[in-house]
Please model this.
Amino acid sequence: MMKNPWKTLSSKEIYKNQWLRLREDQVITPSGHNGIYGVVEAKPAIAIVPLSENQDTYLVGQYRYTLDEYSWEVPEGGALDGEHTLSGAKRELKEETGLTARTWTYLGELYTSNSFTNERGYVYLAEDIFDGVSNPDSTEQLRIKKIPFLQAWQLVLEGSIKDALSIVSILRAYEYLKKSQKLNN
Amino acid sequence: MMKNPWKTLSSKEIYKNQWLRLREDQVITPSGHNGIYGVVEAKPAIAIVPLSENQDTYLVGQYRYTLDEYSWEVPEGGALDGEHTLSGAKRELKEETGLTARTWTYLGELYTSNSFTNERGYVYLAEDIFDGVSNPDSTEQLRIKKIPFLQAWQLVLEGSIKDALSIVSILRAYEYLKKSQKLNN
Model:
């Protein structure tokens, strides 16, 4: 669409932990000025909308340390190093909810906060699902809620679900199901 | 809804620039283990959906350094220190597009990427708009596109707009206009 108008002169790692890496680049801005750019590198964020035969979905509730807020979201997690996002989606769905699914549909990517991070979100719809045993991360304390998918869509519309990745995921699942004429009303 | 199950033992600033601050906290996780949490503190992100009398909107195109991608988005920007998000919305809309608006409607908040940042997005609909002179940030090289609002909604549905804050903003504007029976078809 357009050539990158930024120039990177140098790049320095500031911080790294298991989940993110912060680097500071010396740059020339599109308008030709010298500047810095702090970029938070994050692993792919994967979101899954599970859908049962009678069109229930599963939400995950957890306390978000970053925001000091409780948040209801779709099952989400980060890809492991070198892991394909579909494999990550299967793993995260199983870990958080115990569910496995036979039918997976990719609903596209998104940028979570592109002014400072390279994090991309990847959205999957999981159908033909089966119950199993969940095995959440030891850092997480999750609650799982099974509700009609259309009720989750209402929670998005009324603003009760505030996590951007969850909002986009439920929107895309809704539009996909509507288009495929699979949505029960 | 639930007490914060995380405990913060100490907090250390790792990095700070004009746009973000990174801190690393020593924590006790919800499951009782010692750990660290790297939190990226960011200013409120403000998004504006401008709507003309005949229901055109304005998209802003720019090259996103973080992702190495060109991205079409709604007008967006960060709040200044101490600035109310509505004042920020008026300022950013004017800076990026030259537009001013007489009618402002707040369409709620969202969390852009709550596993590692406290960034919140704030969405505004701007109606009764007037053209003026734009004055973009010197770091930005923006293109402005005026298109029918319903076409922007289609760009969201087909996945061409990938910025999460823009997707959520256009979705909320669409639902608000539909509910208020203001949407021309």
Q: What stands out?
A: The radius of gyration of chain B is 19 Å. The mean pLDDT of chain B is 95. The beta strands of chain B are 7-16, 20-28, 34-42, 45-50, 56-64, 69-73, 76-78, 100-111, 120-130, 143-148.
